[in-house]
From TrEMBL:
The H protein shuttles the methylamine group of glycine from the P protein to the T protein. The keyword Transit peptide applies. GO terms for cellular component: glycine cleavage complex; mitochondrion. It is found in: Mitochondrion. SUPFAM superfamilies: Single hybrid motif. Its main location: mitochondrion. This is Glycine cleavage system H protein. NCBIfam families: gcvH, PRK01202.1. It comes from the Eukaryota. Its cofactor is (R)-lipoate.
Amino acid sequence: MFARTVLRASRFAAAPRVAPRFIARGFAASTRVNEVIKKYTKAHEWISLDTADGSNTATIGITAYAAASLGDVVYVELPSVAAEAVAGETFGAVESVKSASDILSPVNGEVVEVNEALNEKPSLINASPEENGWVAKVKIAGPEVLEAEGLLEEENYKAFIEKA
């Protein structure tokens, strides 16, 4: 911080004026990286967590591969809000003109929201399986939960479905 004296001739005052102070501000770099973490299961579900809001609420749905394999989805059984989601256990189902399939939870947590739009328009799963066709939002313990064994990075999931 510094101050500078400026001499000016003024008809109103003969005293020198002090120039405004300029304050150097430092911006601390945050050590927290805000990112979206997205993982996949071998049962063709995806889970996504946006770490920016710190809410630890993960979004779960079925993958584009699963949606394409099912064909036209005609019904979605959603989990109940406040239900417990248990990793590897059924917490919903999808039915298509070809078949029906359970939706398995990739993680443990509590269901805090479901995609009610799927009740009226189950075809959202076909149109946008990994965005608008999400199934449920689950409160999890934290981002470290997504490091669980069995959850795949996108590259590993793509390699897995290529072998299928």
